[in-house]
Amino acid sequence: MIRLIVIDLDGTLLDNGKKISGENEDAIRLALDMGVAVSISTGRSYVSGHQYVEQLGIDVPVSYQNGALVTFGHGDEIEIISKSLLEASRARLIYTRARDKSLNILVFYDFFRLPDISTVGPSDSPYREYYRHNKYRMIFEDDPLARISDEGIPEIALEGKESLIKELLFESNSHLDNVTVVKNDSVEEHAFYEFFGPGVGKENGLEHILDHLNLDWSSVAYIGDNFNDLEILKKAELPVVMANGPDEVKRHAALVTTRDNNNGGVSEAINSILKIRGEE
Q1: Which of 51, 97, 156, 236 is 20 to 30 A from 270 (CA-CA)?
Q2: How confident is the model at residue 280 (pLDDT cuts 50, 70, 90)?
């Protein structure tokens, strides 16, 4: 029986204006009232995602940055359930090789404080909206490499031509042990890839949540929309993909919503999940 609904943020729970609709919030309240726990699993960092968790009053652990950080609680009462850092030597190697290929590089150097991203400047790529939405988090500077501390960092992200990113991955393969690579998104020939420390992935972040709640995958319904949701969709008992998701992701869904993230798709998904749960 489904006892936990886990929801992605961008492209799923959030509309394109980065808001949670009243309809989606009401559906989450309904699930909670029926005794079903609700959590969030997002590629967003804590500093850009925790306000939504607080808005919903979620009282179970939450997974941030594709599972690199799992926390429980709010405000000054935050407990770190798990945390993974990208080793400094690996981060510096990725940075220098990406710079040599003229890829756009974002260095995420802090889990909890703003600003938390260093980059040379805003991009004119298909991901320009990402820079606009996250400008408040960014420092534009000539040498983001200097932000990579010896103890490691949460993440490096690369965006640009996917062929160049794949070339970098091939050339650096022998140096990428203890590095988790996540393809976040692609637009035509461009792509957005993220590089994390060992053991990172939305599915691993959810493992920590399940351990904390003493649940297993047979209890999980997951609602997502994109490539970084694939592994978790493959393991969830009831995988749901949004109407706006790519066809490659939809192939891994038991349910695909008829409504997208701008039109209450999560509300539709939750109501379907609760109906299936009631029939079990």
Answers
A1: 51
A2: low
The CATH fold of domain 88-196: 3.30.1240
The answer to whether residues 114 and 137 touch, using CB atoms and an 8 Å cutoff, is yes
pLDDT per residue over 194-252, tens digit each?
999 999 999 999 999 999 999 999 999 999 999 999 999 999 999 999 999 999 999 99
DSSP notation for 36-101 = -EEEEB-SS-HHHHHHHHHHHT--S-EEEGGGTEEEESSGGG-EEEEE--B-HHHHHHHHHHHHHT
Task: State which fold the 4-83+200-279 domain adopts.
Answer: Rossmann fold (3.40.50)
| Range list for CATH 3.40.50.1000 in the chain | 4-83+200-279
